[in-house]
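Practice record 12: protein with EPZ.
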Amino acid sequence: MQTITVRGGQRLCGEVIIHGAKNSALPLLAATLLVHGISEIHNCPHLSDVRASMAILRHLGCRVTRQEDTVTVDATAPIGSDIPDELMREMRSSIVFLGAIIARCGEATMSYPGGCELGPRPIDLHLAALRRLGVTVEERHGHICCRAENGLHGAEITLAFPSVGATENVLLAACMAQGTTVLRHAAREPEIQDLCAYLNACGARIHSTEAGVLTIEGVPHLHGCAHRVMPDRIEAATYLAAAAATGGELTLRRCCAEDTSPVFPALEESGCVIRAVASGDGLQTLSVKAPARLRPLGTVRTMPYPGFPTDAAAPLLAAACVADGTSVFVESIFENRYKYVDELARMGARIRVDGRVAVVEGVPALQGASVACTDLRGGAALIVAALAAAGQTTVCELKHLDRGYADLTDSLRAVGADIRRE
Ligand code: EPZ
């Protein structure tokens, strides 16, 4: 079993390049199924979740190749309509293939996406929306069997919660439906905009009349195109947290400042100075300079975009563990996002969790310990804490980290961390 070993206490200084966003690459790869042709997805991160999505596309009958940061998908041939259990189990977000497979095949079969470390992962909002588009859903022996007997048709849909995944499934199912769909209370995350940009470049007709409302006019077919995945705002937030936790000074290249900005207020509250400079390619270079000792981050309440992103809470909570005072985190998106807190406690962190609220009492220093990743972003929190801790920390269960962070160890070593993976 591989482990990461960190000798903490080094101030991080230097430059990091931010990769393409995992949570955009996954729905984009699912969307390539809609195209009777070839799509080139550039800036596609090297992550295990991306490899799992490529395996699903291949299983369905697509030709999928990768050349460095570009994944090419040829979905010309007729495709299958079922995702086998082992592939569904590997990646919970495979549910985003549902809408695309139904749109392409008129039916889809897959097992219920397993729950994950964040608590149950219901898909009621996905299924309710797909039913509005003409899908009948049968649940048999843990499998979901969907059929659009009379094809997919436009509908007026209002989501009970601005679910990212449900919004993506509606977009994929509606863009070649008969007629127009109006989706209200849609998710507004930047990854949704990235997906719409790709679909419109393929010939779809999606536009947003007002925040949280998406209008999708069905078109008869989509053609292939090339698309560049947006920068990963959560990866960027993770490096900002690492700089904050170590009193460091980092420059992050190939970011989108606006997408990442919901985490700036908490970091600025703690004494970090963050600057964004245009880098000419429509992106920005972010720089962060942290104080020697953080002040508390205040109260961090996670919300749907443009609020504070739930995925960035764990890394920032890790930085809050060494702040000079008490910070409060309120998780309003997922049921159980604090599994990693017990691991931080092994490093001397003083955190009280009560349901969705975590009260973090900063300590002068954390102590290195042997810890295990419980989930993707909880694993990132352990790395951030290890970078700040006195002494040596060993982190195991790295499969969680590999789902969402490419070459994390190398990037951190390049900015001064004493870190190695073996
Ligand atoms: C996406 O998950 C992201 N994953 C998550 O990132 C992210 O935390 C989440 O959006 C919120 O921003 C991907 O994009 C692959 P949701 P998703 O549907 O689509 C409940 C990471 O670390 N819900 O917006 O699953 C659900 O249980 C991951 O990169 C229902 O109740 O999120 C949750 O409490 C973690 N019924 C809340 O809504 C449904 O039908 C938000 O879920 C769907 C969701």
